Amino acid sequence: MAGFTPTEGAAMCLEHLLKGSSADRGTNLELLLFTNTSLTLNTTAATLTEPTGGGYARVTLSDGSWMFSGGIGTYAPYTFTLSGSDYSADVYGYAIVSTGTTPRIVAIENDPDGAKTLINGDTYTIPMYLI
Known about the structure:
The structure is a single chain. The protein is mainly beta and 131 residues long. The chain has one domain (7-130). The protein has one helix and seven strands; from the N terminus they run H-E-E-E-E-E-E-E. The strands form two sheets. The protein has a four-stranded antiparallel beta sheet with strand order 2-1-5-6. A hairpin with a 2-residue loop joins strand 3 (67-69) and strand 4 (72-81). The longest helix has 13 residues, at 7-19.
């Protein structure tokens, strides 16, 4: 996940760096898929639309499972597997969000291959790294 960090995530990172805490950080982070067709630096976690159906659920990214080397944070790739039905809408990308008082987007990326129509039985794997 190369993507970018929207304004709200950058502000949270700066607060965490300078003050050592952010109520918006929470414990762990979450990986989600989104169906929004366009993104800007002003996109917020509250404006993201997630698919429904197919057994979709956000994924918890445990703080202790991140690895850091050479300024890059990595996490094992995650595969969403659809079960029971199709997703309600095309998936345009994925995001990592905080879980605190007001969830914030830490990083977001439009799928470089474009929108995905995902149906029952499909899998969708997200590479996990932050620069």
